[in-house]
Amino acid sequence: MVVDDLVKHPGSWLSTENDAGVVVSSRVRLARNIRGIAFPGWAGEDECVKLCKGLREALKKVPAVANALFMEVAKLSPVEKEVLKERHLISSEFAERGAGSGLVVTGDERIAIMINEEDHLRLQAISPGMNLLSVWEEINAVDSELGRHVEYAFSPSLGYLTACPSNAGTGLRASVMIHMPGLRLMGEVEQVTKALTRMDFAVRGLLGEGSDAYGNMFQVSNQSTLGENETDIMARLIQVVDEVVRQERNARARLLESRRSFVMDQVGRSFGLLTHAGLMPSMEAVDLLSTLKLGVELGLVRNLTAAAIHEIILLTQPGHMQKIAGKILEAQERDETRAKIVKDKLRGVSLSK
Amino acid sequence: MVVDDLVKHPGSWLSTENDAGVVVSSRVRLARNIRGIAFPGWAGEDECVKLCKGLREALKKVPAVANALFMEVAKLSPVEKEVLKERHLISSEFAERGAGSGLVVTGDERIAIMINEEDHLRLQAISPGMNLLSVWEEINAVDSELGRHVEYAFSPSLGYLTACPSNAGTGLRASVMIHMPGLRLMGEVEQVTKALTRMDFAVRGLLGEGSDAYGNMFQVSNQSTLGENETDIMARLIQVVDEVVRQERNARARLLESRRSFVMDQVGRSFGLLTHAGLMPSMEAVDLLSTLKLGVELGLVRNLTAAAIHEIILLTQPGHMQKIAGKILEAQERDETRAKIVKDKLRGVSLSK
Question: What is the pLDDT of residue A226?
Fold first, then answer.
C-alpha cells in the first residue's frame, strides 16, 4: 500500500533546505472544474467515477505528474486518510468522499491533485521554506499543461468557476506556514495576526481551517480570489510574509538581547519535558517542539536540526503513529507512544553550554 | 560566624535515617517562662538582657545543651536570620526581636532553645522521620533538668503560664512534617486535612503558620495545650499520624497499581524540568522535588536518596543561597542560582528504565 511507504519518511517539503527559520512551508493550490459537468457535490456517483477516470488519463499527459501515484479515497482506511491529512496532501472534506474521488501525488509529495473534492480538481504544490514563487510556477505549469487536454469551466467575466463562490476567479489560494515563537514570547503575536486579518489575509492554525493556532504555527493565506490577478495576489502575500518574517526575526533578536535567561529557560524546560515525560499529548508535543525549534535556530541546542523537529511533529501525529504501529491506539497509548518516539528521536541531542 | 558553618550541611534532622518515606521530621517544643519576670513583650530591654544572661548560665548546667552554640539575635544579619528560619531553628517572630534575645542550639541542631521569643523560653527538639516519642523524651529531659536551676511560672490549676493563652497548660506543641504526594495525586489530600482539622489538629504548610501547603508537605500538630496531659497529647498525635501514613502508603500503592504510567510521567516530568530549567522559582522547585521524592520512594529513580532531596530543598531556600553566595541575590538571580544548584546536585541521577 502506498501510504505504508509515505509514513516512513517526512514529506520532502519538510526538509527545510530553504527554511528561513521562520517560514516552514509554502503552498499554492488552484481550484478547477470541467466545463459541462456538475460539481462533485451535485454529480451522481457514476458521473464522478467517469470524470475521475478521464482526469487521470489527462494528468498522465502532464509531464510533472505523469508518473505520479494514484489513490482512490474509497479504498483508504481511516488511519490512512489521517496520514494524508497530516501530510497536507488531502483535506478533511476530501477524506469523507466516496467512489470517484482520488488523489494523484508525486513521489516527493511536492505536487498533489485531489480529483472530486469540492471542485473537480484541486491542484497543489508545496515546498519547504519561503518558496511561494517557485511553487506558484510549478503548479501554474501543471495547470497550463492540463488545460490543453481538458476544457476548464471558465467565464470571461468571473474567471474560473468553482463550487463555492469564495474560490471563483483565480481559484488560487496561496499560503505559508509561519513559525512565530519569538513574537509569542514577546507577547506580540496577536497584534501581528490582527494586522494580517485587517489586510484581508486569512490566519489559521497548524491544521488548517477551524484549528487552533498551537505550536506557534500560523497559516497565512490570501482571503479573496476574485478581482485581483494571480501575480498581484502572490506579490501582496510575499510582501506581507516578508514583513512578518522581519518582525519575528526582530522579536528573536530582542529576546536574545534583553531576555536571554528567559529564552534559555523556556528552551531548556521544553527539552527537559520532551526527553522525560512518559505521556505526551499531541498539542503539548507541538508546543514544546516549537520552542525547541526556536532554540535550534538561536544556537542553543546541539545535534538537532529544524528539519528533524518537523519530522518529529509529523511522525507523532495520530495517523502516522497508528499507521506505523499497524493498529488503532487508544488515547493513552498514543500519548505513551508519542513520548517514546520523541525521546528516541532526541537521543544524543543536548542543550548548548 | 556560626551560621557560616550551618549552611554547609543539612541539619541532622534531615538525614532521614528513620524516614518512613512519609514523615519527614518530628518536632516537639515547650513554652516556658520564669516566675516573677515580665513576658518578653512587656519587659524592658535591660530586663531581657539580664534574663537572657541568667538563662544561658542555667542552660550550661543542663548536660544536653552544656556545649551548645549561642547566637544573639541582634548580631545576626537578615540573611542569617533567614537561614535559621529555613532550618526551623527560630521563628519569624524571634527574628524580629532585639537585644536580650538569643538562640542556644546544639551542633547537630536537634535541640534549639529560643530565649526571649514570645515566651522566656521555647525549648525544641527535632529529628528526621517519625520520632515523636524520642524527641519528646529528649526535650522533656532538658525541661526537667533546667527546672532544677530556674523557677518556672506555673499554676497548679492552669499549668505552665505563657504569654499567649493558647500555649498555657502543658506549653507543648508537637508536630510532624508529613509528605503526601500520593494522596495529592489521588485527589484525596483535602479530605485528609479536613478530617485532621475536625479532630482538633492544626494543619499548616511547609514553612509554618500562615504558609501555603506546597511541595505536598504538611505540618500536623496538636491544637490545644490545655486540659490534656503531655502523654495523652503525644499519644493522640502519634495515633493520627500513623493513620495518615497508612492512608498515604495506601494511596501510593493504588497509584502504582492503577495509574503507573501517570505516576511515571509525573516523576519524569519533574526530573526533566529540574535538570533542564534555567530559572527555577522557589515554590516550583519544592513541588517538583516533592514529586521526585515520591519517585525515589517508589523505586522509579536511580542514584538519589530522599535525604539528598531534603538537602536540595534546604540549600535552595533564599537565605541559604544568599548566605552561600555571600551576597544579596535579586529575584531572577535567585531563580538562576537555584536552577544551577538543583542541576548540580542531580548530576548522575537518572530515571529507572
Answer: 77
Cell numbers placing B99? 537585644
Contact check, Cβ <8 Å, B273/A275: no
Q: Where are the domains of chain A?
A: 2-252, 259-351
All three cell numbers of A320:
502516522
The predicted-structure confidence for A299-314, as pLDDT tens digits, reads as follows: 999 999 999 999 999 9
Q: pLDDT confidence of B206, banded at 50, 70, 90?
A: low
Is B264 part of the contact surface with chain A (CB cutoff 8 Å)? yes
Q: Mean pLDDT: which of A221-230, A306-315, A340-349 is highest? A: A340-349
In one-letter notation, the amino acid at residue B173 is R
Question: Is A192 at the interface with chain B, CB within 8 A?
Answer: no
For A183-192, which contacts have Cβ atoms below 8 Å and span 24 or more sequence positions? A183/A216, A183/A247, A183/A248, A183/A251, A184/A216, A185/A251, A185/A255, A185/A259, A185/A262, A185/A263, A185/A266, A185/A294, A186/A251, A186/A254, A186/A255, A188/A247, A188/A251, A189/A213, A189/A216, A192/A244, A192/A247
- A275 has a chain B CB within 8 A of its CB: yes
* Chain CA centroid to CA B86, Å: 8
Q: How many CB pairs under 8 A join A and B?
A: 53
Say yes or no for a CB contact (<8 Å) between B278 and A272: no
Report the chain B residue with the minimal C-alpha distance to residue A339: B265
Interface predicted TM-score of the whole assembly (ipTM), two decimals: 0.84
How far is the C-alpha of B146 from the C-alpha of B161, rounded, in Å?
16
Fold of B2-252: Creatine Kinase; Chain A, domain 2 (3.30.590)
Q: How many residues does chain B have?
A: 353
Min Cα–Cα distance to chain B from A307, Å? 23
| B22-to-A76, B52, B196, B319, B344 alpha-carbon distances in Å | 55, 38, 16, 26, 26
Confidence check: pLDDT of A240 > 60: yes
Q: Do A278 and B271 touch (CB under 8 A)?
A: no
Contact B336 A261 (CB under 8 A): yes
Q: Is A330 on the interface with B (CB under 8 A)?
A: no
User: Using one digit for the tens of pLDDT, what is the confidence trace for B139-172?
Assistant: 999 999 999 999 999 999 889 999 988 888 999 9
Q: A277 near B269, Cβ under 8 Å?
A: yes
